[in-house]
Specification:
There is one protein chain. By secondary structure, the protein is an alpha/beta fold. Helix content is 30%, strand content 23%. The strands form two sheets. A twelve-stranded mixed β-sheet has the order 1-2-4-3-5-8-6-7-9-15-14-11, with helices on both faces. Strands 10-12-13 form a three-stranded antiparallel β-sheet, with no helix packed on it. Strand 6, helix 5 and strand 7 form a beta-alpha-beta unit. Helix 1 packs across helix 8 and helix 8 crosses helix 9. The chain starts with a strand and ends in a 14-residue tail after the last helix. Bound molecules: zinc ion.
Length: 358
């Protein structure tokens, strides 16, 4: 028999350092730290899938998508291998409806900082340090039950409209997970943006993929993230396709339909970094994967127009006030290159020698 347990975060990290108390109820707002878990039958073991929704607090769609999946699993109780656990990401920022409280929670996952955090406990003046320790506790706990490595899906949304896509570190084991999802994949973002949570977890040997569902508050964004979760459960061989509510094919076709004509996998090689004093404003009308020509005007700031550094595809144009990434630029891989890398189980390319190189 299946079981879903809803619980409220303990608000206490492993070393017993008291954190701010967490509240939250089953389906209310703010959400609890642990949104729920599902395991079919008793005992441990099997693959472990951790879903993180709302690592950015102004992106609640991932929390809603995870709750939908958990609710349907609880109701139908299908047979499933292993265990699914879903947690909220930046819990306090989700409660406040802000991207973050004191600093971006997806930017400071470095081994040095995390070992310092575990040693000294969180700085009470930095809300995100408390969040990091609580997320690490959830990861440690699931790993104890399911073993290493875990699969981790980190759900995000964007300020601009656009098709869903996944982002990941460039490795064969990550490509295996994204191959179940008929949406474009971006590699290389982890080399352009230091300190992302998944890059840290990937370096620890876990399989980690982020999924961008679309624009923050659109209802279809939640549908897409939900579809991606079901497809990932099937791709991870935890659930069989006939147990996907609403139909595995139908959900796959929905995602494939909105991604029609987009590349399978692209390589992010440039980040336009923004600091708040520069007055960055993206020109209207850009969306992720849109082709742009070298020299084409994309945005402006106090210093003048900002142009595409080379011909390629623009990614994640910034249409909100918060955030340090104005836009990214990417190039496509050929199908032959992807085929060869899969055959040899190798990364698609060498790591960048430096940051922000074309
Ligand atoms: Zn995000």
């Amino acid at each position: 028999m299946g079981s879903v347990k809803q619980e409220v975060g303990s608000g206490r990290d492993e070393d017993g350092v008291p954190a701010r108390p967490l509240t939250g109820d089953d389906d209310g707002w703010p959400p609890a730290r642990v949104l729920g878990r599902y395991r079919h039958g008793e005992g441990g073991g099997g693959p472990g899938l951790l879903v993180v929704g709302g690592l950015h607090g102004n992106e609640p769609a991932g929390v809603h998508a995870a709750r939908r999946v958990l609710a349907q699993l609880a109701e139908r109780r299908p047979p499933m291998r292993g265990e699914l656990v879903a947690i909220s990401g930046n819990w306090r920022a989700l409660a406040a409806g802000r991207r973050f409280i004191d600093r971006d929670l997806n930017r400071a996952w470095t081994p040095a900082l995390l070992s310092a955090l575990r040693r000294r406990g969180p700085d009470p003046a930095v809300s995100e340090e408390v969040e990091q320790l609580e997320i690490l506790s959830a990861i440690d706990e699931l790993e104890q039950r399911c073993g290493h490595p875990l699969r981790i899906l980190d759900l995000h949304t964007t300020s601009a409209p656009g098709a869903p896509f996944s982002g990941m570190g460039d490795s064969y084991r990550n490509r295996q997970l994204t191959s179940a999802l008929p949406i474009p994949t971006i590699i290389g973002l982890d080399e352009l943006v230091a300190g992302a949570m998944l890059a840290y977890l990937h370096d620890l040997g876990h399989v980690g993929v982020s999924i961008e569902g679309g624009q923050h508050d659109r209802p279809e964004t939640v549908d897409r993230l939900e579809a991606a979760l079901w497809l990932a459960l099937v791709g991870a061989e935890m659930l069989t396709p006939e147990h996907v509510p609403g139909g595995h094919e139908r959900r796959r076709d929905m995602l494939a339909g909105v991604c029609q004509g987009l590349p399978r996998i692209v390589d992010a090689r440039y980040r336009h970094r923004v600091n708040p004093t520069q007055g960055f404003v993206m020109d209207p009308g850009f969306s992720s994967f849109q082709r742009v020509r070298r020299g084409q005007r994309l945005a402006e700031d106090k210093r003048g127009p900002i142009r595409a550094p080379w011909t390629g595809r623009v990614l994640m144009p910034l249409y909100q006030r918060e955030g340090n990434d104005g836009f990214f630029m990417a190039r496509e891989f050929s199908r032959a290159r992807l085929w060869l890398a899969n055959l040899l189980r190798l990364p698609l390319r060498r790591p960048l020698p430096g940051r922000e190189l074309p």
